[in-house]
Predict the structure of GLRX3 protein.
Amino acid sequence: GFSKQMVEILNKHGISFSSFDIFSDEEVRQGLKTYSNWPTYPQLYVAGELIGGLDIIKELEASGELETVCPKVQKLEDRLKELINKAPVMLFMKGSKQMAKCGFSKQILEIINSTGIDYETFDILEDEEVRQGLKTFSNWPTYPQLYVKGELVGGLDIVKELKESGELLPILKGEN
């Protein structure tokens, strides 16, 4: 019951956390009591420091201090904006610069590599939340997706058209 209450409080405040089931490892269960000099569970740690048990968390919640002590969950939209702006030229694709994991991603890599422009990639196969969220955020249903200075340029077909028209290099340089 105490652990459930702790989780409910953390979730209610949008606090980012992970957990460990102390019943899964008796050595950890007993050792942590000694390590922390705290005899009961749950125990909340932030950045490796013991904050306390449920009573302490309830006190911090009541005083309004809980949210200043604990890290918040980053909203998906904020995370996407951060990723899109990670580099001036950012490519969301299946795979990486070193190894594309689909034909469309391979083709767009070849085109961008031919420009000599530096860019970063994000493998959408490694993060389902980003993979689905970016489709909605950008209002673009497919991958790869190319961004320059935080703005969506488009997918493979658009990039091919821009290359053929001679517009791709100025766009990648941020001149358009």
In short: The chain is about 50% helix and 15% strand. The CA atoms of residues 9 and 58 lie 8 Å apart.
